[in-house]
User: Fold this.
Amino acid sequence: MLVARNDDGRRRLIEIVTDNGVATLDFANEPGTIATSHERRNGDPLWDTAPRPLATMLTAFLAAAEGGPLDPRLSPALATASASLAGAMRGAYIERQVRWLEQRLGAPLDSSLHYALAELSGEGRGDGDTVSAAWSGIKDSVALRSFLSGSPLWSETESGQVTGDL
Assistant:
């Protein structure tokens, strides 16, 4: 399956350019890797000693259902901060993905292209036929951006303008 949890085509990489160089978090495969210009380390230092994410979520859910305190990671303040960060990065992320796709216009639809198109177009839950058919008809940047404009990653403002640097 092209969207499988640890599929070879799956890419999850955050890259930040700092005064000290480039730092990356690659979490395509668990537990992920953090790399800076002078070191590389495990993305989750508690990976071998702490419960996995599902166990942690179920434990927090059962504790809340029994009237216990909520896990502090579920706080509204943390959610707001996370949403702010995601919002700040959203436009740059989308534009970078679109440029990556533009460089591959006319290329055969391989697993990496299929995954990116499915994710960005919002067709990831479908059977894949929509993405395959669309890619064969996308001949230029205008057609690509038109296809992607229906993505749930883009939102319309009250004026009807699409946001996300498209």
